[in-house]
Structures are given as structure tokens and as C-alpha cells.
Write a structure and sequence with these properties.
The protein has 15 helices and 14 strands. It has helices spanning 4-16, 21-28, 32-40, 60-69, 75-82, 88-98, 100-103, 163-177, 190-193, 200-209, 225-238, 247-261, 273-283, 360-382, 398-404, and strands at 118-124, 130-133, 136-138, 142-147, 153-157, 183-186, 212-215, 296-301, 307-310, 313-316, 325-330, 334-339, 342-348, 356-357. α2 crosses α3 (32-40).
Length: 417
């Protein structure tokens, strides 16, 4: 086949210098017909390899027969059914080409968002462990929120995936923005809407904010692709090379980094999130007059050990309310316990697993109560009992009653064996 450089030289010699075809053929060592073909062609020659057969060709009819009835049949099962004798790579490539004919293609539209319209939310789990106290290191979830119009990114580490903690994180991020997006997009996180329907805490949260929580279809990560890309950006640009002494240290480092992240130019919107945030802000709804219900809460009767459980940790309570009902509330920062509207315990929340948090005042009160109870029992045991007229009640020893009733435990029993 004629090379591209020979084709170019033939055309130059003939058109620019007027060299005859016969002379060109002699100089380049090619046939005269080759020279004529090069002069008649306006495009450079392209090498095209003749198509060869593929090992999957003779198995394709069997593949199609199986896909016709079971479009989602896995490749290993198809290989077993058709007796595939080769490695799986050629089979998978052929299936990737023909399966859409039976399964169908689900295209994703490019979506544009109006200011204040949408915020996408998700949980990101950074691989780097965080010191949480009590000699423990944990992988903790980070709540990430990305505004649809401005691409403004915000995030905060939270202690658990429970609904109360997720909603506390959402309220904190919304407070940072200063207004409420019209729609909050979530995947089917169990605490938000794992069954495809909003949980009661999530619905109450949305109702108080006068917004809507929209759940993504199952197994469709592209539906909230913005926040998924934000998770990847955090994974590759924020996390590498960092160490964290505590969750508070993580959040502080993250807050400092987000200032720079929101000042970068985002290619898809040809602008910086920090510059477009104002338009997002003006189109959102104002914050509600009352805070939405967030955090963890429970109501229990305080047991004798005067501790209540929050997540996996135990927190001491004033033992003077043992046996009474107490209301336990936990935010991201602290645990507070109420009894009849009065605070009977307040602790900094521990993010360590199986942590036991004790207020020294509660332990001292419990010790004093035990001592008072022991003294009272001793006093009652040693005090003299008296009749109603005031004279002392005589206390007899137990052997006196044995003698009175003729019982003698020292004599052997005469009962037949």
C-alpha cells in the first residue's frame, strides 16, 4: 500500500514541478498505475485491516437466545449454559454490545437547576480513621450537601447514621447557608427513606422547614451526580495526607478547606460557587421561626444504676430521680437529661463506642445515698420497739419459741425411712 509521504511527494512532483508520471514512477520506485491513482485521489491513503473473525461469533446465536428470555442473565451463567471454552473477557465484550438490544438503554438527561431550587445530600465515609477518645479510632460519616445552581459545597462530620444525627447535620449546614433550598435530594438512606417513603423524623424535619425531601430512584447514583462528584472531590483533594486528632479537628480542617474549594472555578457552570451563592440564597425560602426536630431523643424510667444510653454510650444521671421517668436528648455536641422539666444531667457527647461518661457529682450523690440508707437500716435494727402505751416490747430469742412448742432439734427423727 502507498505510504502517505509517497502520496504527498507524487502530487508535489507532478503538480508543482511538472514531472511526468513515468519519471515519478522511476524516481520513487513505484508502478505508473500507482502514480496515476495517487494523482486521482484527493485524500491521503488510509490503511484498513480486513476484518477477522471473533471467537464469540459462533456462540452469538446462543447468547441472543438466552438474552431474549432473560435479558439480565449474568455473564458467568451464560458462559455455563453455552459451554464457553475461552476466558471470560471476549464473552463479556460481546455481551456488552448485544445486551442493550434486549435490556434497553436508560439515557440520563443533562439537567440545569434554577437558583434556590435543589440541594443534593449524601453521606461520605472517609477511609482515614479519626481519634474519638477512650483510645479508639473510628471511620465516621460525613454529611455532604451541594447546591444545584451555584455548586456551593458544605460538609460536616457526624457521629452516626441515625436519623437524629443526620438531621442535626442537615440543620447545621442549612444554617450556614442562611436559607432553605426548595428541594433536598437524598438517596434511599435508611434513616431518611430506605423503604421508598420518608421516615417520620425526616418528614417532620421537611415540614418544619417548609421544603421537600425527594428520594432518588433505587440503584441510580446518577440521579444525584453532583454530590457524588463532591464526594470524589473530597476523597482526592481534601483527605490525602491529613491526620485528625478528633472529630472537632476534622470539622475545623474541613471548614478551612471548603473556603478554598468554593473559590475554585467549576467548569460545568463556568463560575465560582462563592460568586453564585448570592443568587442561590435570594431564591431560597427563609429559615423557620422554630428549629426543626433534630437529634436523638428517648423517654425511659431511670434504673438503679442511674445511667441512660445514647447511641452506644452510657451517661450518668442524678441518682435522686431513680425510678422516675426522664427525657433524654442528644445533639451532635452534648447529652441533656430532663426530669419534670428540670435538667438532671448534662454531658459532652462522646463519639467513642461503649463509652461510659460519669459526672463526679452524680457518683458522689449515689455514694452519699447508699451511706444514708445503710445508716438508716442500722438505726432501725438497733432501735427499741415499744407498745402504744410506751413500754418496751420484749424480744425473745428463737430457742425460747422452740422450747415453748416442744421442738427439740437435737433429738433424732423417729419418722420411718
Amino acid at each position: 500500500m502507498l505510504k502517505v509521504e509517497d502520496w504527498a511527494e507524487i502530487r508535489r512532483l507532478h503538480r508543482a514541478e511538472g514531472v511526468p508520471i513515468k519519471e515519478i514512477a522511476r524516481r520513487l520506485g513505484v508502478a505508473r498505475n500507482t502514480v496515476r491513482a495517487a494523482l486521482n485521489s484527493d485524500r491521503p491513503p488510509v490503511f484498513e485491516r480486513a476484518p477477522r473473525g471473533h471467537v464469540a461469533d459462533r456462540f452469538e446465536p446462543q447468547m441472543r437466545a438466552l438474552l431474549q428470555e432473560w435479558p439480565t442473565m449474568p455473564a458467568p451463567v451464560i458462559a455455563e449454559r453455552i459451554g464457553w471454552p475461552y476466558s471470560s473477557a471476549p464473552l463479556r465484550k460481546r455481551l456488552a454490545l448485544i445486551r442493550p438490544e434486549y435490556l434497553g438503554i436508560d439515557p440520563v438527561d443533562r439537567v440545569s437547576y434554577e437558583p434556590g431550587d435543589v440541594a443534593q445530600c449524601d453521606l461520605w465515609f472517609p477511609e482515614t480513621k479519626v481519634q474519638v477518645g477512650a483510645g479508639q479510632e473510628r471511620v465516621l460519616p460525613v454529611l455532604v450537601m451541594t447546591l444545584g445552581f451555584s455548586r456551593h459545597l458544605s460538609a460536616v462530620m457526624i457521629p452516626s447514621r441515625q436519623a437524629g444525627d443526620i438531621l442535626s447535620g442537615m440543620w447545621q449546614l442549612i444554617n450556614q447557608v442562611g436559607r432553605v433550598p426548595k428541594t433536598l435530594v437524598w438517596d434511599r438512606e435508611a434513616a431518611i427513606g430506605g423503604s421508598g417513603k420518608l421516615t417520620a423524623p425526616a418528614a417532620a424535619f421537611a415540614g418544619t422547614l417548609a421544603t421537600r425531601i425527594k428520594l432518588a430512584p433505587p440503584r441510580d447514583p446518577e440521579y444525584k451526580g453532583m454530590v457524588e462528584r463532591s464526594n470524589g472531590y473530597l476523597e482526592t483533594s481534601f483527605l490525602p495526607g491529613r491526620q485528625f486528632a478528633s472529630p472537632a479537628d476534622f470539622n475545623q480542617q474541613l471548614e478551612d478547606w471548603l473556603i478554598k474549594a468554593n473559590s475554585r472555578t467549576v467548569r460545568s457552570i463556568q463560575g465560582r460557587p462563592v460568586d453564585l451563592l448570592e443568587r442561590d440564597y435570594l431564591s431560597m425560602t427563609p429559615l423557620p421561626p422554630l428549629e426543626p426536630p433534630t437529634g436523638l431523643s428517648s423517654r425511659i424510667r431511670l434504673a438503679r444504676d442511674y445511667y441512660v444510653r445514647v447511641d452506644t454510650g452510657d451517661y450518668s444521671v442524678d441518682p435522686q430521680v431513680i425510678g422516675r421517668f426522664v427525657d433524654v436528648t442528644a445533639s451532635l455536641e452534648e447529652v441533656v437529661v430532663f426530669c419534670d422539666g428540670q435538667v438532671v444531667a448534662r454531658h459532652e457527647r462522646s463519639w467513642a463506642k461503649q463509652a461510659v461518661v460519669t459526672d463526679p457529682a452524680h457518683a458522689a450523690t449515689a455514694k452519699r445515698m447508699r451511706q444514708d440508707l445503710a445508716e438508716d437500716r442500722q438505726r432501725r435494727q438497733t432501735s427499741t420497739r415499744r407498745h402504744t402505751d410506751g413500754h418496751a416490747v420484749a424480744l425473745r430469742a428463737l430457742p425460747d419459741y422452740d422450747a415453748l412448742f416442744g421442738v427439740d432439734f437435737d433429738q433424732p427423727s423417729t419418722k420411718a425411712e
